[in-house]
């Protein structure tokens, strides 16, 4: 009786800990700020801080809210690099029809008396060159804000079209233009807006992948990009932007028309498999910001794999070091860095980005060969270092510090979970933000003196699987579930038979592996996380483990 | 009046504008105002992205993950310096022209606040130094004026966000603290509330508390420890 009482007390206290435990408001505020970029409302705070279940539901609602997009865009901006110098934009602009440096026609807009908005010509030397009487002016509806009316001369309509989309727009008074958001403000600045979009495009791809819950490995998918309204409308104006320089293919151009100019968020656009592209790595921002192939390689090594090249320079630096890949003192880095940089050979460097030859080079990275960025993307995403690095970044974003040496087990578990959810970044964020230790009210120092070492390369990603706690019997636990397979996999069919215990002994490992990634049975939408196939996969996995 | 009714003939131009302003769409073919970018008879759509989705929550494994503990508590996080002004303003104001103008006015302080440079060479600060803290005070003050005591010339269309008349200092201070710090009014520190109330009263004009009297208290809340670090 005494033991029963102790058991009841234990169960009750466990229940209290897991569900009725009040969550510090500090943790709720932090989760709201980092996952949605805002403070919780009073009602949200009441529900989320009442107990752990309420908090978990709140975190889930934040991750599924529209605000999560903004938080993720900023997260990825900081992961991939913030900003882009304005001079890079000049390189992309088309030359005038006569081949001179005269660019696309520019309109200068301003507020007149009474707040009425008007636009007039502005020549390249910033001199107004055409005007008309007020009575001749026409109203137009500019593309950047619904419901807005501007007054312009007839010749402006003829050149810029009735929504002014064929001209570069500048607004008098940079103060307001500096913070404009398309669709919400009367003021609009073509160059600032386009530069902001180009600068954020890599972050936009990753954010859209996360929000739509595609596997995070797709941030490097060949043929996948993302555009917002500004990018879409700018790329369609060939007289403004030289789309050939940006390697915009016809498939992308065709789809751009589906993105409204006022759309401020990035949408994923799939343009068909192309070996020379790899998602974020071939956005204009990444290629131009990190302008040398070695820099591009170094940045991806650091930002996507959390690994750093540490130089051990010789005491006396040789005047002509020769081949850096083999010279002592240089080869430590360059034997890896230079072959990695070769994957970018298909693209030009620096200001010659647009004059690339388009010829790939056969090269290797972490012992795997390839010649294109599509190959490189494949190598990176099939190495566990990519998943572990993503976990590193997500943990640091949410917990405010890096992993400590003694937290290797935690990183391993989180990495395994990330892989098991088929690289769901949403689930990774949820797993960290709902961790019991994330809910502590205390705060520690952000400077970690015993950081966990960089993730090792060369390991194929493997999920962390649940422990096999019960003994699995083929007849009682597996046999009732195999009808999900035997409609195709029966004796004398073209496929391997999966009807008997002996069949499963032979083909079980392969079947588990195919079921784990959603390849079997046909029609699966990703890796199974519950239901009949999941139960079968887990039963077979444990049975094989218990009966080697 | 009758004369106006019989003789007023609205021009087509004016009609188009009225329709456009009311509906946001130009659907009369007689109107010359057509949207070339947005309207298209074929209504193009984006191709489907041919990838399977990632998975959802896996309860059993998540429990195992949560069984592996942190070696120390999470560290304090500094709110993003690049977004400090936008997020503070966003707590009270909608996007729009005045919003953009207000942000534009504090843009010049962004680098001193610890924000990233446009050429990506300077990354956002994760901690504070004396410069960023002093700049934070300056920026918070400018934003606070637009929140509690806007004026028609600089902040057209905005009125004070204070929910009660300025003379009701206690409830107004609690409202500002609750919104800016993300805390329930019942959880606010009583001594902080009374100190801020005194601060508001100290800036009364001729003995009368007005909207402007709240600017210093609002700035102080933005510099509260709960707001500086999460």
Protein described:
The complex is a heterodimer of chains A (548) and B (230). In chain A, the strands form 4 sheets. In chain A, strands 2-1-5 form a 3-stranded mixed sheet, with no helix packed on it. In chain A, strands 3-4 form a two-stranded antiparallel sheet. In chain A, strands 6-7 form a two-stranded antiparallel sheet. The longest helix of chain A has 22 residues, at 190-211. The model of chain A is unreliable at 6-19 (pLDDT under 50). Chain A is built from 22 helices and 9 strands. Chain A has 548 residues and is mainly alpha-helical. In chain A, helix 5 (67-80) crosses helix 9 (190-211), helix 13 crosses helix 14 (331-342) and helix 16 (384-399) packs across helix 18 (425-433). Chain A has helices at 2-20, 25-36, 42-50, 52-63, 67-80, 87-92, 154-160, 174-177, 190-211, 229-236, 250-256, 284-289, 293-303, 331-342, 373-381, 384-399, 408-420, 425-433, 474-478, 483-486, 501-516, 532-546; strands at residues 106-111, 117-122, 138-140, 150-152, 168-171, 224-227, 267-270, 363-365, 368-370. With 230 residues, chain B is mainly alpha-helical. Chain B is built from 10 helices and no strands. Chain B has helices at residues 2-7, 12-23, 59-66, 84-90, 97-106, 130-148, 169-181, 190-202, 215-222, 225-228. In chain B, helix 7 (169-181) packs across helix 8 and helix 8 (190-202) packs antiparallel against helix 9 (215-222). The longest helix of chain B has 19 residues, at 130-148. The interface between A and B is large, with 119 and 85 residues.
């Amino acid at each position: 009786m005494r033991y029963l009482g102790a058991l009841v007390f234990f169960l009750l206290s466990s229940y209290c800990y897991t569900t009725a435990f009040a969550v510090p408001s500090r943790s709720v505020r932090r989760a709201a700020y980092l996952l949605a970029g805002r403070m919780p409302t009073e009602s949200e705070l009441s529900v989320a801080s009442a107990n752990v279940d309420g908090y978990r539901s709140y975190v889930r609602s934040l991750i599924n809210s529209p605000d999560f997009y903004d938080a993720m865009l900023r997260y990825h901006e900081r992961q991939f690099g913030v900003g882009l110098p304005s001079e890079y934009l000049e390189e992309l602009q088309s030359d005038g029809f006569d081949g001179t440096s005269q660019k696309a026609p520019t309109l200068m807009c301003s507020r007149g008396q009474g707040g009425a908005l008007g636009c007039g010509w502005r020549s390249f030397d910033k001199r107004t060159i055409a005007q008309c009487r007020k009575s001749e002016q026409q109203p137009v509806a500019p593309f950047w804000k619904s419901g807005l009316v501007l007054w312009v001369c007839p010749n402006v309509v003829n050149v810029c079209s009735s929504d002014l989309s064929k001209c570069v727009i500048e607004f008098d008074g940079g103060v307001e233009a500096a913070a404009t958001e398309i669709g919400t403000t009367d003021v609009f600045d073509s160059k600032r807006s386009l530069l902001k979009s180009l600068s954020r495009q890599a972050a936009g791809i990753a954010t859209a992948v996360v929000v739509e819950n595609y596997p995070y490995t797709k941030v490097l998918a060949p043929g996948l990009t993302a555009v917002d309204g500004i990018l879409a409308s700018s790329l369609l104006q060939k007289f403004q932007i030289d789309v050939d320089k940006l390697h915009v293919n016809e498939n992308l151009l065709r789809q751009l028309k589906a993105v409204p100019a006022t759309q401020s968020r990035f949408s994923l656009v799939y343009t068909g498999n192309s070996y020379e592209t790899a998602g974020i790595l071939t956005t204009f921002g990444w290629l131009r910001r990190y302008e040398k192939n070695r820099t591009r390689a170094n940045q991806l090594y650091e930002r996507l794999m959390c690994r750093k090249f540490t130089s051990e320079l010789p005491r006396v630096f040789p005047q002509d070091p020769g081949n850096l890949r083999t010279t002592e003192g240089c080869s430590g880095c360059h034997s890896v860095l230079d072959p990695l940089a070769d994957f970018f050979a298909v693209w030009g460097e620096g200001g010659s980005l647009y004059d690339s030859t388009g010829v790939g080079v056969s090269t290797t990275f972490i012992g795997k060969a390839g010649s294109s960025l599509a190959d490189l993307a494949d190598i990176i995403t099939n190495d566990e270092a990519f998943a572990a690095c993503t976990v590193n970044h997500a943990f640091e974003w949410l917990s405010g510090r890096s992993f400590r040496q003694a937290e290797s087990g935690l990183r391993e578990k989180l990495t395994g979970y990330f892989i098991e959810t088929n690289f769901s970044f949403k689930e990774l964020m949820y797993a960290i933000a709902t961790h019991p230790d994330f809910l502590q009210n205390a705060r520690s120092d952000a400077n970690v003196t015993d950081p966990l070492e960089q993730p090792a390369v060369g390991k194929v990603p493997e999920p962390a699987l649940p422990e096999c706690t019960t003994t699995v019997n083929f007849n009682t636990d597996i046999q009732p579930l195999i009808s999900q397979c035997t409609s195709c996999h029966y004796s004398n069919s073209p496929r391997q038979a999966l009807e008997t215990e002996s069949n499963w002994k032979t083909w079980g490992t392969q079947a588990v592996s195919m079921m784990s990634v959603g390849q079997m049975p046909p029609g699966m939408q990703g890796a199974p996380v519950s239901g009949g196939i999941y139960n079968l996969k887990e039963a077979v996995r444990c049975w094989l483990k218990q009966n080697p | 009046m009758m004369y106006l009714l019989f003789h007023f003939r609205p021009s087509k131009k004016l009609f188009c504008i009225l329709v456009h302003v009311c509906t946001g769409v130009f659907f009369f073919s007689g109107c010359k105002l057509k949207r070339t970018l947005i309207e298209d008879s074929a209504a193009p759509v984006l191709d489907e992205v041919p990838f399977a989705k990632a998975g959802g929550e896996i309860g059993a494994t998540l429990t195992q993950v949560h069984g592996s503990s942190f070696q120390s508590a999470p560290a304090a996080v500094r709110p993003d310096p690049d977004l400090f002004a936008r997020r503070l303003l966003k707590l009270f104001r909608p996007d729009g022209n005045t919003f953009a103008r207000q942000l534009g006015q504090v843009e010049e302080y962004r680098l001193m606040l610890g924000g990233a440079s446009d050429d990506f060479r300077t990354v956002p600060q994760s901690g504070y130094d004396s410069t960023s803290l002093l700049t934070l005070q300056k920026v918070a003050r400018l934003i606070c004026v637009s929140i509690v005591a806007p004026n028609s010339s600089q902040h057209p269309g905005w009125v004070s966000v204070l929910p009660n008349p300025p003379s009701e200092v206690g409830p107004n201070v609690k409202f500002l603290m609750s919104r800016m710090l993300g805390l329930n009014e019942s959880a606010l520190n009583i001594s902080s509330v009374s100190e801020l109330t005194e601060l508001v009263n100290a800036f009364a004009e001729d003995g009368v508390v007005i909207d402007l009297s709240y600017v210093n208290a609002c700035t102080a809340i933005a510099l509260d420890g709960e707001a500086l670090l999460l």
